TrEMBL record, chains A, B:
Pfam family, one: Vir_act_alpha_C
Origin species: Streptomyces populi
Domain named Transcription regulator PadR N-terminal: residues: 7-80
Highest taxon in the source lineage: Bacteria
Residues annotated as domain Transcription regulator PadR C-terminal: 92-179
Protein name per the record: PadR family transcriptional regulator
Coiled-coil positions: none
Length: 200, 200
DNA sequence: GCTTTCTATGCAACTCGTTGCATAGGCAAG
DNA sequence: CTTGCCTATGCAACGAGTTGCATAGAAAGC
């Protein structure tokens, strides 16, 4: 149900079309939410029919017309209600962690490239977040007295930065572990487990 | 699709019933995966019908019979194939981050209780992970020369520990920010920067 | 001229995941 | 002795999310 609320927050911050929302969620810093455009269009339509959003057709030149959505009063109320409800703390589901444990039944060294690729992606993300932070919050061009919304956006972004830094450090740890297992020198490690090894 | 692979890995580590898998995923340390029992039963049934799993009916005394699943050769092959495919790096979807940004349009102070609750949950999880690490990997009772599977389980667990520590630190940051916004009088009560407070 | 990319919206079909409910014996607390 | 919890499996319905496809004009590169 949280996509609905993410849309409400995003539209309160700035009204926009389904397409624009998709891009905010997809690439933007500070939302930490993903959704495809199909999902967004579908939910927008439902929310509009329920009266929590208002639409305005905006004719454009040189590009297709768009439907600009904004939050109606019932939407604001729904968001407020949700903010006062408790939500479940996240449990992370990390596909890569499954792969790492699975590598015990295959060749651990074969995962190195994959882990390095993830490392690059997270490093790029971190760089993008840090650039955004400098631009919007801590740089010389940022508004000096931040308002409430900006303070809150900043603390969320700091969360994203902390997450990427933690992930990068962990991936370094993973790489070191995989390499130690691949090059068994002396006492530690080595594929000498008692399990059925890499078949297939 | 990764639930299938998480099940394969878990069953390779140790065969078990749907019920047992549900508990491993639900509460256990080191999997970082969640699934309800219904989902697991459904997928197990499909995987069995596809021939990637084998079932064995195990009669029990004092409790209902169970179906113990184990990985068949095609399952091992499927896992191996998956391990060599690239996967998308995760993008985190944090409901709480949406709430925090949404609080700009409501009362930020009202989120304090919720954030504190999440803080407690993550602290408990961290304590559980650390206890597990001591028990299985770094304590005096842990097997001294870890085998490949154990090394990999340990590095995944270290990831969980790093995640919880990062999250707890971030929630501290969030709490400090919320409190600074709620008590605007103090010229510099802020967590790190000495910026002036809110101006809603 | 042709292909690709960007803006912009949408349908159809599918899988993934959650919630509510049902069954059923054993066990422990009140 | 009744209520509730634990083990163990499962159906039905719904909502969330993904993938493939379709349309369509404008701009930019080959």
């Amino acid at each position: 149900m949280a996509l609905e609320h993410a849309i409400l927050v995003s539209l309160l911050e700035k009204p926009g079309s389904g397409y624009e929302l998709a891009r905010r969620f997809e690439r933007s810093i500070g939302y930490f939410w993903t959704a495809t455009h199909q999902q967004i269009y579908r939910v927008l339509k439902r929310m509009e029919s329920e009266g929590v959003l208002a639409v305005r057709e905006v004719p454009q030149q040189g590009r297709p017309d768009k439907k600009e959505y904004s939050v109606a009063d019932p939407g604001r109320a729904a968001l407020s209600r949700w903010l006062h409800e408790p939500i479940e703390p996240e449990s992370l589901r990390h596909d890569l962690a499954v792969k790492i444990r699975g590598a015990a039944f295959d060749d651990p060294a074969a995962l190195v490239d994959e882990v390095e690729r993830h490392h690059r992606v997270h490093s790029d993300r971190l760089a993008r977040y840090l650039a955004g932070e400098l631009r919007d919050f801590t740089g010389p061009d940022a508004p000096a007295p931040l308002d409430t919304g900006q303070e809150l956006q900043h603390v969320v972004l700091r969360g994203g930065i902390a997450y990427e830094r933690m992930t990068i450090a962990w991936l370094d740890d993973v790489l070191a572990t995989l390499r130690a297992l691949g090059a068994p020198t002396g006492a530690r490690g080595g594929p000498q487990d008692g399990r059925p090894g890499p078949s297939v």
